[in-house]
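Kindly inspect the following:
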Amino acid sequence: MRPLFNVPGVAGYALIMGLISSSPIGATIAIDLYENKLLTKNEAERLLAFTNNTGPLFIVGTTGILLFGSKLIGYLLLVTHILSSLTVGIILGITSRIKNDNKEVYDNSYYKSVIKRNTDDLNDLGGILSQSIKKSIALVLQIGGFVVLFSVIISILNDSNIFNVIASILEKFYVPKDFTKSLLTGLLELTSGVSFAANLKTTHLSLNVILCSFLLGFCSISVMLQVISIVSKSNLSTKTYIKGKLLHGATAMLYTAILINYMPIFQLDIKPYTINFNITKIALIIITFIVAFATILIKSELHHKLSRKQYN
């Protein structure tokens, strides 16, 4: 873990659980490790960015088999999702080394005390199981509440024609209305957005898959708020997490496009549809949006550092 992601080996538990389960499991584990002083503040913030992923069951089962009717597409999205998650972790690890952010010193004696405490806790196995069940139920209810809330918000935006107004504006830049609606819906709530994107009528099926890969990597504002609600109980910042999810979506989209174009097994454009997409212009718009957003984040970070130096 340290050579690749610049985090201690104990963070591997959060990474594995984040890859085999859905958000916000990775966040709960990262917060728990941080509160037990097994991670520094910087390590915990970076860990949040690449351990909160969409679950394999949703990617392969719901997106691939149910929506696209293809296990191959599900496996493609899963592979690119995992690759992009690891890429985000590696990039953040490299940047942390360059900035030399890990200045906190570990106390090895604390690890021994944690191990002893966990061993003592096994004597109260019933209490541990009871507490785990309560936390799991509360987390499931919280996730369900966010999904219902954002489904209602999406319905309101559709009924009030706000999506149509935005889509009409972007249509002047050669972005089809249906594409805009799918993207906006997916940015708000993942399940609805992926469903819209999978059923979007395009000239090439690969465009639907690439759009879904971005939405699965970004995970939607609904999922972000779930993670932020958990992180808010600690003193961790969510800036790195938000940057990481944008980077996750962009790299997932890039990996998906590369595999579709250069691996014969993933060549999916076998069924033409109706709406004519200008792929180059849409790609330029998406890239411009990502670059603009990243520029704003970088400027705000520089401004924060300068103001902090002046204060000191």
Notes: Residues 2-277 form one domain. Residues 270-277 have pLDDT under 50 and may be disordered. The radius of gyration is 21 Å.
